[in-house]
Amino acid sequence: MRITGRNDMASSQKMGIWWQVKDPDGYVVDEYSKWETYSTGPGSEQEFRGGSFDLDKAGTYTISIQLFMNPADEVVVDDYYGNLCTVEAVEEFAGTISRKELKYDNITGPIPVG
User: Fold this and answer.
1) Facing residues of 92 across strands?
2) Distance between CA 16 and CA 86 in Å, rounded?
3) Cβ partners under 8 Å of residue 80, min gap 6
4) Domain range annotation of the chain
5) pLDDT at residue 13 tops 70
6) Rounded to 5 degrees, what are φ and ψ at 24?
7) Fewer CB within 10 Å of terminal CB in the chain, N or C?
């Protein structure tokens, strides 16, 4: 997952982030926290890249995020607590293929075409 924070201050700031993602059953599937190594200049952005996780359960995944500035006396400058996405089960199709043909340049032939 990738989240970008922007420094809207008039001076350079060091930014940090924390997030936690939970699956539809409430289990934590991803948690990440980091302070940037160097400061971000005014109007500039800092990208934070965490791990990856599978969206393998139907239902709503939630996320909690906090963006910080000033690691010596940290202040939460933005946050979000809510839905990340909803995964729906895909309808399964059952049956057989009765005709296998390939159409290419207006020529139809059985697969494989030689």
Assistant:
1) none
2) 27
3) 63, 64, 65
4) 2-110
5) yes
6) -60, -20
7) C
Phi-psi region at 50: left, alpha or beta (left = phi > 0; alpha = psi -120 to 50): beta
Question: How confident is the model at residue 110, as a pLDDT?
Answer: 62
Please write the tens of the pLDDT for every residue from 34-51: 999 999 999 999 999 998
Q: What CA–CA distance (Å, rounded) separates 18 from 65?
A: 6
What single string gives the DSSP state of each residue in 31-96?
Answer: EEEEE-SSPBPTT-EEEEE-------SSEEEEEEEEEEE-GGG-EEEEEEEEEEEEE-PPPP----
CATH superfamily for domain 2-110: Immunoglobulins (2.60.40.10)
- C-alpha 111, offset from chain centre: 39
User: pLDDT for 55-107, tens place per residue?
Assistant: 999 999 999 999 999 999 999 999 999 999 999 988 887 777 666 666 667 76
What one-character DSSP code corresponds to residue 71?
Answer: G
